[in-house]
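Subgroup meeting minutes
Present: P.N., E.W., G.H.
Scribe: E.W.

1. P.N. recapped why we're keeping a running log of single-chain structure predictions: easier to compare across weeks, and new members can see raw inputs and outputs side by side.
2. G.H. added today's entry (194 aa).
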Amino acid sequence: MSVHQQPELKAAILALPNKEKDKLLIRLINKDKLLIKKLHFELLEDEADLQLRVDNLRDQLRELFANAAKLLTNKNSLSNIIALNKLVRQTNGMVNEHEKITKDKVSELEFRLLILEEALTRFAHIIDQDHLHASHKLHQYLAARIKFAYGKWQKLHEDLRFDFREDLQMIISTAYESPLASYLRYHHIPENIE
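Output recorded in log:
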């Protein structure tokens, strides 16, 4: 139940002395790690810190894919499909956290495209495999991520759209040449973006 649904409790909390309210606020903030990160970014960081965050996350993502490339071999293996699915989900989770903290739409799209490009080009041999359920889950997820990135791209200013157009087109074209094609058609993703 929300405090807003209990007007008496809300009034009592607002009537507390400032020192008591501050203690309560700090205790509540400590229970939400993401909120702590977001407040740190908003209150203590500037544009240089944002660029440092972007550079660090870009390096982390590339390193994760490079390490995975050493482990996921060319052999037709169910475990490779599952591992790639986990990797793509993990890296998207990292981008989700970055976006929630910084609200930076440009770097968010850059990272979404980086993840898709790495997955589609570096691991094409895994995406082309067919282990029914596992492949279907991976293909569904990748197609949904492409749709999501395409939607984010469409919402950007036209100058920024121009900057990302070539990368997004390459991802979509690569996906249409893979088993993802039917999933992209299902999501109404055009083969050529404008």
